[in-house]
Each structure stands twice: as structure tokens, then as C-alpha cells.
Amino acid sequence: MNKNSGTNVEARIQQLEETIAHMSRLSEELNEVIARQDAEITRLTQRVEMLWRHAAEQQADAESGTIPLADQRPPHW
């Protein structure tokens, strides 16, 4: 193995190490984004459920004997 060949191997190893470091950092950043999105989706789902309950309660108070809004199919179904 000549000196030039050893230098090429070292350069390739260094490039691979840099690529792995970049991908590790990117993976951590994406994991943080996913964790934030999961928390936001959970929060928004709870709000939507609360709003559906509130709307159904208001409709039940206003119109006795009708189907609650939460149990109705959307008009496009």
C-alpha cells in the first residue's frame, strides 16, 4: 500500500465521520420536531373534543329532541 493510497483511505474515513456526525445531529433535530408535533397534536385533539362536547351541550340545551351535533354526520357524507 503506497502513501497516496493511505491518504485516500484517511480522507474517506474523515468524510464518513463528518457525514455520520451530520446525520446524527439531523436525527436529533428531527426527533425534537416530532416530539413537539406530537405534543401539539395531543393538545389540539383535546381542544377539538372539548369544542365538540360544548357544541353538543349547547345544541341539546337549545333544541330538545334533536340529534346532538356531535352525533350528526357532516353534510358531505
UniProtKB/TrEMBL annotation:
InterPro entries: SlyX. Residues 56-77 are annotated as: Disordered. It comes from the Bacteria. Residues 13-47 form a coiled coil. This is SlyX family protein. Keywords: Coiled coil. The lineage of its organism: Bacteria, Pseudomonadati, Pseudomonadota, Alphaproteobacteria, Rhodobacterales. It holds the Pfam family SlyX.
